[in-house]
Specification:
By secondary structure, this protein is α+β, with helices and mostly antiparallel strands. The protein has helices at 13-20, 36-48, 59-66, 75-92, and strands at residues 9-10, 27-30, 52-57, 97-104, 119-126, 131-134, 144-145, 151-155, 168-171, 184-190, 203-205.
């Protein structure tokens, strides 16, 4: 089967979640663009907000915990992130989610891989988005990339019934290869116990 970037694209997060539930789909990309208010909020947060927020909780509890780090200028960003949390929980049937919002300046996770998780949502608010390729085509596979604001749903190796056929590998875009210094603002949503998440790992880091 011939693939292109449009083969993975869906017009709404709801359509992407419906697609990723099908066995033959390993990645579904919710096509979204950042409106002016959200883009401005993301720019402000990238400049003044915490460098890392990491916690696992219900959508309601996350809203309360994030309130102290929200300002009128960054509220549209956190509201959008919490909207994705709500969609993630509704679609997966999970009561809680692992929430990670971080500022990235290095080549983290630059090798193509499949995560050891159930289902991961990646949304880059600022900077280049996640890159992916079909695993079976190896190093010769075309590399695709998400745009800012798009939500990429990726099945991990722990997804029920996961099989390697049609698997999609992904990586963080190598920032060191860019012509100018670039910082990413990335939201990652997972099942609450993903990556060995424990209570003492929860933190908000200001830098």
């Amino acid at each position: 089967m011939t693939h292109s970037r449009s083969s993975f694209q869906y017009s709404t997060p709801e359509a992407a979640f419906q697609a990723i539930d099908q066995a033959e789909h390993h990645l579904a990309l919710a096509t979204r663009t950042l409106g002016p208010d959200l883009e401005k909020a993301a720019q402000t947060y990238l400049k003044d907000g915490p460098s890392l927020i990491l916690m696992a909780d219900t959508p309601e509890a996350l809203a309360q915990e994030l309130a102290p780090v929200s300002t009128p200028e960054t509220q549209p960003l956190l509201a959008d992130a919490l909207g994705l949390v709500g969609r993630y929980c509704a679609a997966t049937g999970m009561d809680a989610v692992r929430f990670r919002l971080e500022r990235i300046t290095s080549d983290s996770c630059r090798r193509f891989h499949v995560d050891h998780v159930v289902l991961r949502l990646l949304c880059t608010y600022m900077g280049p988005g996640v890159q992916w390729r079909l695993a079976e085509q190896g190093d010769e596979a075309p590399v695709y990339q998400a745009e800012a604001g798009e939500g990429a749903l990726l099945k991990g190796g722990c997804y029920p019934g996961w099989q390697p056929e049609g698997a999609v590998q992904h990586r963080s875009p190598p920032l060191s290869s860019l012509a100018v210094p670039t910082t990413r603002l990335l939201l990652t949503l997972d099942a609450p116990q993903a990556c060995g998440m424990t209570e003492n790992q929860r933190r908000i880091v200001r830098a």
